[in-house]
Amino acid sequence: QVQLVQTGGGSVETGGSLRLSCAINGDHDSVKSMGWWRQAPGKKREPVARIWDDDDKHYASHLRDRFTISRDIAMHTVYLQMSTLQPGDTGMYYCAAGRTYAGLASPEAFQFWGQGTQVTVSS
Q1: Is 89 left (phi over 0), alpha (psi -120 to 50) or beta?
Q2: Cβ-count burial of 54 within 10 angstroms (0-12 exposed, 13-18 middle, 19+ buried)?
Q3: Per residue of the chain (123 residues), what is the pLDDT tens digit?
Q4: Backbone conformation region of residue 15, classed left if phi is above 0, alpha if psi is from -120 to 50, else beta
C-alpha cells in the first residue's frame, strides 16, 4: 500500500511563495507518477503538475511559469514550489500517486491521494 502525507501550505500575501511537500510512505517503489491538484471553493478540481519516476515533468500551462514540481528520491518526497502567488491560487492542494505513467488529464489513474493542505493567498 501507499500512503501520502502532505505538509506545508498556509497563508501568504500576494507575491509570496510557499512549498508543499508530499511524503510517500509504504510501497514507494511501486509509484511511477506523482501529481498535484488543487480545488478552490465552489470550483472543480484542477490539475497543477505531475512528475514521473524518470523525472519527466508536466505542468498546467497557466502555472508553469510560477510553479515547480520536484522530488527527493532518497526521502521519497515530492515538492511543489509555488512563487508569485495570487489570490486565485487559494484552495486546497492535493498530492496523488499512481502506479502507472499517468498524466494530469487522468486523475483516476492516480490511485492514492493525500489528505490535502490549504493554501490561502491574501490581497
Answers
A1: alpha
A2: exposed
A3: 999 999 999 999 999 999 999 999 999 999 999 999 999 999 999 999 999 999 999 999 999 999 999 999 887 999 999 999 999 999 999 999 999 999 998 999 999 999 999 999 999
A4: left
Give, in degrees to the nearest 5, the angle at Cα 104 between 29 and 23.
35
Pull the grid cell for residue 66.
510560477
- Contact status, residue 90 vs residue 108, Cβ threshold 8 Å: no
End-to-end CA distance of the chain: 41
Across the beta sheet with 2-8, what order do the strands follow? 2-8, 18-26, 77-82, 67-72
